[in-house]
Design brief:
mainly alpha, two-stranded antiparallel sheet, 4 helices, rod-shaped
Length: 111
């Protein structure tokens, strides 16, 4: 019977115990891992929206504005990809941000 130490009080408990019988502390990391933050997904979608606005107005831009819009699209693409790779919450937001950013980037570098 494998034993581990409680995360709350430090006493020995069975390794499959979800709660410590002595102090009641939660023993699994699953509850805290599921409650991640959405900041990276939100950042990605905000930058993707800015990149899409730049891509829509591409005819009125000069070279510097095209480079800036492309950089914004790359930041959005990176934020979405990092969020997906780290398996944080906001998967749908990150996928949307990545797709919008990639399309915007292609439009911007194509002009």
């Amino acid at each position: 019977m494998p034993m581990v130490f409680c995360r709350g009080c430090g006493k020995e408990i069975h390794d499959t115990a979800p709660l410590c019988p002595h102090c009641g502390a939660l023993q699994t990391q699953a509850a805290s891992a599921a409650s991640g933050s959405l900041w990276l997904a939100i950042t990605g979608i905000v930058f993707a929206i800015f990149a899409a606005i730049c891509a829509v107005q591409v005819n009125s831009f000069d070279h510097d504005q095209l480079v800036g819009g492309s950089a914004i699209a790359l930041v959005a693409l990176a934020a979405g990809a990092i969020n997906l790779q780290q398996k944080k919450p906001g998967k749908r937001i990150s996928v949307t941000a990545s797709v919008v950013a990639a399309v915007s980037f292609l439009i911007l570098i194509g002009s």
